[in-house]
Amino acid sequence: MSSNRKRSPKETFEPAQWVSQADAAKMRGVSRQAIADLVAKGRFRTLSIGGKTLLRRSEVEDFKPKPPGPSPKPKQSKRKKGR
After folding, report:
1. How confident is the model at residue 10 (pLDDT cuts 50, 70, 90)?
2. Which of 50, 42, 46 is nearest to 21 (CA)?
3. CB 21 within 8 A of CB 32
4. Are 44 and 59 in contact (CB under 8 A)?
5. Which of 12, 21, 27 is nearest to 55 (CA)?
6. Which residue has better confidence, 76 or 16?
7. Across the strands, what pairs with 48?
8. If you ran DSSP here, which 8-state letter would residue 19 be given?
9. What's the Cα-to-Cα distance from 9 to each of 13, 24, 41, rounded to whole Å?
10. 3 state SS for 52-71
11. Are 21 and 55 in contact (CB under 8 A)?
12. pTM check: above 0.70
């Protein structure tokens, strides 16, 4: 018996939409370790297949790095002293 069940877009794997960390590093002009650090910080969604970590090609192409240095602290409003 064959199944005519259609796959949802979520279940369809398109290899062209995914790149390895090494390919992502070449695309961005950075080291593979820099990409691995971004993955560890959760800046990219990943897919692991057979021990390889893949990144979505569109996320790598559209990635905008944060400015260097510490993140700015939220400003606290100055309260006026009540009399």
Report:
1. low
2. 46
3. yes
4. yes
5. 21
6. 16
7. 53
8. E
9. 8, 24, 27
10. EEEEEHHHHHHCCCCCCCCC
11. yes
12. no
Q: Tokens 């796959």 correspond to what residue?
A: 7
Pull the structure tokens for residue 52: 């390889």
Q: Which of 27, 12, 22 shows the shortest CA–CA distance to 59?
A: 27
Say if residues 35 and 41 touch (Cβ distance below 8 Å). Answer: no
Which residue type is seen at 18? W
Burial code (b: 16+ CB inside 10 Å, e: under 16) for 5-16 equals eeeeeeeeeeee
Supply the DSSP symbol for 46.
E
pLDDT on residue 80: 63
Helix (H, G, I), strand (E, B) or coil at 29: coil
Residues above pLDDT 70, as percent of the chain: 78
